[in-house]
Amino acid sequence: MEVEKIISELHFKAVRSSGAGGQNVNKVSSKVVLIFDLQHSQALFEDEKKVLQTNLASRLTTDFVLILNCDEDRSQIKNKEIVIKRFLQLIKKALIIPKERKLTKIPKSVIRKRIKDKKNISDIKKSRKKPNLE
Question: Does residue 118 form part of some domain?
Fold first, then answer.
């Protein structure tokens, strides 16, 4: 994954931000929308695209486009930096393939201990019963 190449493929849109900010909100387009087309990306290999499609399935549109928003700051430049940083973290995290868990055999001593403990609890419960006087 080449970060510079991916960043060059990103498309940005500046939109008027919602929320607090008074007259500034009505005049300045400080919210940044990042758009990344996963299908037509030249920076990613086909196997990376497939991994991203499965791991980011809930965040992608039907056309496999990833859309991220940022309106945390009043500055459009800072919002752009924040959304790029978020995007790169998201992609790196989604590309990590977890290791397969190796099944291990349960040691016989652990099995014996568990059975012994069950037997002890059973004996304790039996000793709590009222004696049979017949």
Answer: no
Give pLDDT tens digits for 44-90: 899 999 999 999 999 999 999 999 999 888 888 999 999 999 999 99
Which value, to the nearest 10 degrees, does the dihedral of the CA atoms of residues 1, 51, 8, 93 take? -70
Question: Does 116 map to a domain?
Answer: no
CATH number at residue 40: 3.30.160.20
98 vs 105: CA distance, rounded Å: 22
* CB-count exposure of residue 30 (10 Å: 0-12, 13-18, 19+): buried
Tell me the HSE value of 39 on the side-chain side, using a 13 A CA sphere.
Answer: 7
Looking at the structure of the chain, the number of domains it has is: 1
pTM: 0.70
Q: String of b and e for 92-114 (b: at least 16 CB within 10 Å)?
A: eebeeeeeeeeeeeeeeeeeeee
